[in-house]
Amino acid sequence: MADLLDHPGGPPDAVFCYNDPLALGAIRTLLTRGVRIPDDVAVVGFDDIEAGRYNTPTLTTISPDKTMIAQLAVNRLFSRLDGRSPGEPGELWAPYSLEIRESTGG
Q1: Dihedral-angle region of residue 89 (phi above 0 means left; psi in -120 to 50 means alpha; beta otherwise)
Q2: How much is the pTM?
C-alpha cells in the first residue's frame, strides 16, 4: 500500500486486496498516512473474516460460501477415494456475496 501511495501518478481511487488481512493492513497504512477511507481511497478485501466487521472503518469484502466450499472439497475427496473420479484438475464454483461496509462508503 505504501508503494501505491508513493507512486508518481498519485494514489489509486480504490484497492482490491487478495484477502481481508491484507486489506486491513492497507487500511492501517492509509490511515497512518492521513488518507481518508473511503473518501480518498476505497478498500475491498476477500474472505469476510470477523476482524473486518469490527475494524474502523468496517471492511467491505467478498464473502464466499465457506460451507459450500467445504462440501465441494469433501465430495471431491470422497469421489477420488472411492475411485469415481480420476482426480483430473477441474473447476468448482461456490456462491459468494459482496458485503458492503464503511471502507467503500457503505
Answers
A1: beta
A2: 0.86
Instruction: Give the CATH superfamily of 2-64+95-104.
Output: Response regulator (3.40.50.2300)
The answer to whether 42 and 103 are in contact (CB under 8 A) is: yes
Question: What's the pLDDT at 84?
Answer: 78
Question: Over the stretch 49-65, which tens digit does the pLDDT of each residue have?
Answer: 999 999 999 999 999 99
Contact criterion met (CB below 8 Å) for 101 and 48: no
Q: What angle do CA 21, 10, 42 make, to 5 degrees?
A: 40
DSSP 53-88: HHSSSPPEEEEE-HHHHHHHHHHHHHHHHTTSS---
Q: Is 34 left (phi over 0), alpha (psi -120 to 50) or beta?
A: left
Q: What is the pLDDT of residues 15-30, one digit of tens each?
A: 999 999 999 999 999 9
Domain parsing of the chain, residue ranges: 2-64+95-104
